[in-house]
Amino acid sequence: MKLRNTALFAIVSVILSLFIACSKEPSVQKYKVSKTTVPQADVMASAGAGSDAVTDTGLPFTWVTPSNWVEGKASSMRFASYDIPLSNGETGDFSLVQLGGGAGGTMANINRWRGQIGLGPAEPEELAQVAHLHNTVQGQQYLHITLINPNNPSSAIAAGIFEQPGFVLFAKLTATAAGLEEARLDFEAFCNSIAFKNL
Predict the structure, then answer these.
(1) Total tally of structural domains belonging to the chain
(2) What pLDDT, in 10s, does the model give residues 101-137?
(3) Range of 76's domain?
(4) Beta-strand (E) ranges in 72-153?
(5) How many CA atoms, within 13 angstroms, populate the side-chain half-sphere of residue 111?
């Protein structure tokens, strides 16, 4: 059993190394994360009945928006913006941002988000505690991050990082820790629905 777990861990490490390599950031070459498999039917169903219309804004990718998300204001940075109503009266904030090149590197972005919720920088070895590989409907792997400050649960972040040739796509949800958990399946459904036109 120990040998099997070691082999699985090594395979996931290699896959993530290949995933990160397209960012062309030589300072970080390998991360260790676990792979989480979510049944596609369950994740897509969580977006809600009747919400299967694909959104195509002319960008190099499309997505499916959960039915209870409310369109917010886009900007020069946000290609999509949604308000997410939650049961406790809270509203989660979702943004979809595309940046050119490697966008500064995966760890740099994770540490920037950690700073936004009052956490200090993390080392690459700590990534396995907060990151998992997920698959889109096209079978493309992306990095799913969950960041919660146990000393300040009023602000937490879930993010999906999609590395493509020439750009990186960031899907980011900000809410309380409880709100993040409530919106988790819808957030994953959105991320898993992203389809790149060049594939």
Answers:
(1) 1
(2) 665 678 888 999 999 999 999 887 888 888 999 999 9
(3) 2-196
(4) 78-85, 91-100, 131-135, 141-148
(5) 12
Q: What is the amino acid identity at position 49?
A: A
Per-residue pLDDT tens digits for 32-48: 444 444 444 344 444 34
The CA-CA-CA angle for residues 144, 145, 150, to 5°, reads 150
Say which CATH number the domain at 89 has. 3.40.1000.10
Measure the CA–CA gap between 157 and 176, rounded to whole angstroms.
Answer: 8
The candidate with the shortest Cα–Cα distance to 33, out of 174, 142, 162, is 142
Contact 113, 96 (CB under 8 A): no
Q: Residue 151 is which amino acid?
A: N
Residue 44 half-sphere exposure toward CB, CA atoms < 13 A: 15
| Cα–Cα distance measured from residue 156 to residue 116, given in angstroms and rounded to the nearest whole number | 9
